[in-house]
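Lab notebook, page 48
Experiment: co-folding of the full assembly
Goal: obtain a model of how the components sit together before planning crosslinking
Operator: M.T.
Materials (sequences as entered):
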Amino acid sequence: MSNILATADATAALPEIFLAVAAMALLMLGVFTDRNRTDLVNTLSLAALAVTAALVIFTSDGGVARSFSDSFIVDGFARFMKMLVLFGSAVAIILSSNFLKTERLDKFEYPVLVLLATVGMMTMISANDLIALYMGLELQSLALYVVAAFNRDSARSSEAGLKYFVLGALSSGMLLYGASLIYGFSGSVAYADIARAATSGEVGLGLMFGLVFLIAGLAFKISAVPFHMWTPDVYEGSPTPVTAFFAAAPKVAAMAVFVRVMHDGFAGAVAEWRQVIVFISIASMVLGAFAAIGQDNIKRLLAYSSIGHMGYALVGLAAGTQSGVRGVAIYMAIYMAMTLGAFACVIYMRRRGTAVERISDLAGLARNDQVMAFVLAMLMLSLAGIPPLAGFFAKYFVFLAAIEANMYTLAVIGVLASVVSAFYYLRVVKVIYFDEPADEFDAAPFEVRLIAVAAGILALGMVLVLEQLNIAANAAAASLFL
Amino acid sequence: MAVSAAFFYLFSAIAIASAVMVIASRNPVHSVLFLILTFFNAAGLFLLLGAEFLAMILVVVYVGAVAVLFLFVVMMLDIDFAELREGILQYAPFGMVVGLILFTELALVVGAWGLAPEITQVIAAPAPSAAAQVSNTEALGQILYTRYIYFFQMAGLVLLVAMIGAIVLTLRHKEGVKRQSISEQNARTPATAVEVRKVKPGQGI
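Observation: model returned without errors.
Model output:
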């Protein structure tokens, strides 16, 4: 007890510790240098993310490592999801640097907050008990509330931050209430002990209540229906690179937490949680498909699109099998790449120095800028799930898992919703290629074009790397079912 | 034993009396000061119970932070508390009914208090036995910095983010604000500070 090294073995958490220390060091650098060092802090924070990614890969022996009295677990699933999160955060920082400069928002706190949010996400992914989950979730959320309101002189950005904060606090309250009920009825906060208390067929009413509240809190974080109402407003109001960040890394982290809690903490109660997940999955897919049709703001459209995509990813979770988890892992990887690419295209939409966000502003893009038009069209078709683009394979694996688990209704509803959603993705493609050209966009910064083009290439060439992604996702999923 | 009983009645009596004064005094600043007195006496009660950590936390957090915050709010906001308190007698019966219900509920809860027998098996970090001669501050410290170091550090990071957020969202560097610079003031010499002018009679400068 007295030996701190014996009880608090921190080696498994080395990447998180490094990133947290790096974030604090960059904070000091930003505070104690006189000139505006945002560029330097940006570059160094990218380096910190790269080092952290290297640590995630090289500090593990490929097995399962636990730290801090089993509160913190690093397995194949955690490593896969952490790599996605680190990648998403890095791209978000790259996308933000020029945008924030032109909008006069280039403060060194932005990359620092993104790094701290990333620490929160990584600890969420590795959480092996409810307290660790909550701590990581709060660290992540609090940083996100601040960056949502980062453009503090804009009423819409402040509104986005405030709305996100109030609703986020509500969802944290629900999650905590559920966690306290689970603790009360299972006698422990550790997933392993909860799983022992919650074996199928004899899950008590109290534990069931706790489970439902926990799911409600987590569903808010991935913006699944009926806890989605904040998404369009926050996505529209926040500065665009912040929206890109919101749509990518935190979604991956929250989905990873969702999967781990359900499969580690409630492994014996699949039948109980499956019905809830099936409901929110169907509701998200349907709402994402229909509500996006009437949108004319591209950021709102992508917000509804992301709600729908969370529904598809939840199909994999609802299956409750190893191939379902593999489907979720592949889905989140592809979704993140496509979404970041799509938001890079939104950041590219600037006319005479101001950002434009309406879908009609894209009119006739094909005649002004062929490369970006093609890239955006490919990303839209990929998000719609049209073969042989990347988004098709994402949907293929989750629906495959649902069918293997004999959940035909869910799979059929999913396919139908995906057909409906194809309408609004195709409308964007139609506006780009067949409408009368509007004025040209300003020349985009190099890195924004690069990321958009890279995402477009990935959308087209996913077929070629699918095998590798499948192997990685399979290994990640298998580590949850040891 | 008699001494601790005497102190118990002393602390309780002052706590109740000052709690009444919190709502009875006319001046809101006096109310906050009475609130602080209540906190101190409650801390004294905790000390008598042997919960010295709770007593210190009560003083540090509630007196040091919360009550001082109240004091600032009361002094900075221009609220006419006398007007707010008008008609308080009118609502007194209703308030007493609510208080009575709350008291009955508390009494019922305390009266029917019981722990499941298996609860002793699931306590994650049991308190050290009295024979071990470990004070409860020390006992908390022993697990807070070992078993729960991870949560402790995470809580620290969350607070750091809250601080950064508050500064990012509210701090504005205003132009033309005069700040005191002590080193500059100390570096002044008569040569830089005083200017000698010859003034002609009847003309001024």
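Interpretation: Chain A is about 75% helix and 0% strand.
Next step: discuss with group before ordering constructs.
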